[in-house]
Structures are given as C-alpha cells and as structure tokens.
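Fold this sequence, please.
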Amino acid sequence: MAAILIILAIAFAVFIIAAEWKLFSKANQPGWAIFIPIYNVLVLLNVAKMSWWNILLLLIPVVNIVIAFMIYINVAKNYGKDAGFGVGLTLLPVIFIPIIAFGSAVYVDNRVAQEAAA
C-alpha cells in the first residue's frame, strides 16, 4: 500500500513540475527555473510583469499574502484570464496552473499590447 502511495506522490509531483515548466515556457522564460529557489520567484515576477523588488515584500508577514494575490492576478491577466482566475491561481494552484499550462491560454504581455494600442 505504501508503494502505491509513493508512486502516486511521485506521479503527482512530476505532473506539477511539468505544469509549472510549461507555464514558464509559454511566457518565453526558462522552464528549468522552477528548480532553483528564489530565482523561480524572480521568473514568476517577470511573467507577472512586476518589479523584482516585490520579492522583498514577500518576506513581510501579511503583506506577502497581498503580494501573492497581486502576482497571480497579473499572471492570469497576462494569460488572458480575469482577476477571478488569478484568485484561483493563488488559492488552488494545483488546479489552476495546469489549466493555463496545458490549456489554450496564450501569454500576452499587457504592456506591449497597451503600447501598440496607443
């Protein structure tokens, strides 16, 4: 029974790693970044089009919760989703990251789109 649970846990971990890798790859970021602590957060901030100094705010209790919501809402918007999807990314990343990664969502840099419209 324990062997089955270990196999399921490994399969689940591989699935989540693949989903996060694909999430970064769709944004033209290195997928291998998910394996490197702190750097993966910097890449996620880059995907969210937020400044690198927000990583410092993630170190402050309570503020880090607000920043996490802001990061994932921006990630969702850059993939063409709404703010509600960003809340889902924050609260249930195991479900929502694979939806973006393996679904039809396309990464669009909102700043580039806004500059083109102006």
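The mean pLDDT is 92. Residues 12 and 94 are 10 Å apart (CA to CA).
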